[in-house]
Amino acid sequence: MAQIINGKEVSATVKREVAEDTARLREEKGLKVGLAVVIVGNNPASRVYVNNKKKACEEVGFQSFEYALDENTTQEQLLDLVDVLNRDDRVNGILVQLPLPKHIDETAVINAISPEKDVDAFHPVNVGRIMIGNYSFLPCTPAGVMRLIESTCTDITGKQCVVIGRSNIVGKPQAMLLLQKNGTVTICHSKTKNLKEICLSADILVVAIGRAKFITGDMVKEGAVVIDVGMNRDENGKLCGDVDFESAEKKASYITPVPGGVGPMTISMLMKNTLTASKQQAGIE
Ligand code: GUN
Hints:
42% of the residues lie in helices and 15% in strands. The chain is of the alpha/beta class and 285 residues long.
């Protein structure tokens, strides 16, 4: 039976570290840390995420600046706002909540954010920095996954790591981070053949495919570390991950639950990135 990785607990530790560092910065250097969060339209899930981000800012002692824009905001208006935020010294990090309404080109907006304030690490410059292993911030979800793996004291070096999903936000950067820790990494996706066989080779299995309970216990190697990035609803409307927890926990050595696993980490890593951004902008790191 697997040990459950408590994402809430690890996330609380990260936030505590960020809060202590933020208080020290304020006392010793008179610096304040600020995050701007931009939301366009009325997507209810985005609203919840943005509220959680604001709440986390309060918890760690950041200033938060919220810009809630109308659904009909034009791309030009949004780009103008990004330009203002890029030049605003109170703002160390800029987060434009995705998805954006269909008439706005997300890539154009991401590309307009100053890489130094891009705390999501979505800008091509930051993506490139991750590729060459010389980065300031990591995308929040893969960074949270790494911290959860670290919390199990698993040494990644030489391990078979399988990442299921190839998104720009999770799968691709996740694979790079595991590679940088000397894992032997395989990326699988919806077109992969022999998925079960590959999964069964995984010492570390990270699943981010967006399909409810897709990975079942018979696809998990005995003793594997299983990290579930998914957030879905099952047939009864209950929150569930991409992994069938009940059958997988019988095989894994460590496993994340949904909810309470990767989810809480994403926001605490965003706080950590914002703190890093503020230090870099002040020339401290
Ligand atoms: N929408 C869902 N997840 C995220 C995220 O991590 N960052 C942003 N900007 N939008 C999101």
